[in-house]
From TrEMBL:
Entry GO MF terms: hydrolase activity, acting on carbon-nitrogen (but not peptide) bonds, in linear amides
The protein's name: Amidohydrolase
Entry keywords, A to Z: Hydrolase
Lineage: superkingdom: Bacteria
Domain CN hydrolase: 19-266
Lineage, highest ranks first: Bacteria, Pseudomonadati, Pseudomonadota, Alphaproteobacteria, Hyphomicrobiales
Family in the record: Belongs to the carbon-nitrogen hydrolase superfamily. NIT1/NIT2 family.
A Pfam family the protein falls into: CN_hydrolase
Length: 310
């Protein structure tokens, strides 16, 4: 089942039995076929060790930043060879396979940075197009303009695994906590952040932002990453992370391709949210004009906070 946040904003937590989750860390190159082969080997290894949910990083299919070269290999979802291969693999292994993202043709001049959650029967259970485009100028001189090639998504998406509801995000979305809060308020107890963080931003912010999203929402956060120096010269940070709802790191990769895994116990989500009910206590704010003052002030709505139970 998949839904936008607004479809299920009042639904309770969906919690089942503990399960093993794995994150595949890659160093994606330009060749789609080579990347599919590399990812598939790691996915098989993770499934062989008992993982029933496996996540890959952002840009699993190709790490091609040249717009002309990208569009030369771009396919629509129905004909994309990587997606077809991963659907067949999920069915073969009988797992939930979360492809962090593929570049999918979304028109003659734009692509979508699209995440796919594939079920054990090979069906696509959820799709999510990255909402926040990485348009930045970094201190080291690197310049990224994701919006030149990609069309931003407009809908926040969650889906139900047998054990837990998962909220879908991609990479730069990590810097926008309102999205994560909305997914948690809609009943997601596990938040996915497949990424290709740069080395520069990763060294500064990766761990603290991921742990903050887990702590703020009382959710598991699972972030499969790209790592190392890629064929196109881009350096990514690696350090795929599995974080529990208390903000503790359960598993962490280095910078090399491979996979990590951990047992996810959905009961921990309910326990942490009972201990610190920040999702219930939070108040929303809006900027309102202050009469006669020519300025704005913050107005709170919703129930008053009940206090911190820590």
């Amino acid at each position: 089942m998949t839904a936008s946040v607004s479809d299920a904003a009042s639904r309770p937590l969906h919690l089942g039995a503990p399960f093993k989750a794995a994150l595949v860390q890659m160093r994606t190159a330009k060749s789609v076929a080579a990347n599919v082969e590399a990812a598939s080997g790691l996915i098989r290894a993770a499934a062989a060790e008992g993982a029933t949910y496996v996540q890959t990083p952002e840009m699993t299919g190709t790490m091609e930043e040249n717009r002309q070269a990208l569009f030369a290999v771009l396919q629509e979802e129905e004909t994309d060879p990587a997606l077809a291969a991963f659907r067949a693999l999920a069915k073969e292994l009988g797992i939930h396979l979360h492809i962090g993202s593929l570049a999918i043709k979304a028109g003659s001049h734009r692509a979508a940075n699209r995440s796919f959650l594939i079920g054990p029967a090979g069906a696509i259970l959820a799709r999510y197009d990255k909402i926040h485009m990485f348009d930045v100028d970094l201190p080291n001189g690197d310049v990224y303009r994701e919006s030149e090639a990609y069309r931003p998504g407009e809908i926040a998406v969650h889906a139900d695994l047998p054990e837990i509801r998962i909220g879908l995000t991609i990479c730069y979305d990590l810097r926008f906590p309102a999205l994560f809060r909305a997914l948690a308020e809609a009943g997601a107890g596990m938040l996915a952040v497949p990424a290709a963080f740069t080395k520069t931003t990763g060294e500064a912010h990766w761990h603290v932002l991921l742990r903050a999203r887990a702590i703020e929402t009382g959710s598991f956060v699972l972030a499969a990453a790209q790592g190392g120096t890629h064929e196109n010269g881009r350096e990514t940070f690696g350090h795929s992370l599995i974080i529990d709802p208390w903000g503790r790191i359960l598993a962490e990769a280095g910078t090399e391709p491979g996979f990590i895994s951990a047992v996810i116990d959905p009961a921990e989500v309910a326990a942490v949210r009972r201990r610190i009910p920040s999702l219930e206590n939070g108040r929303r704010f809006e900027l309102l004009p202050e009469p006669g003052a020519g300025r704005l002030h913050l107005a709170a709505s919703g129930p008053a906070p009940a206090g911190d139970a820590a």
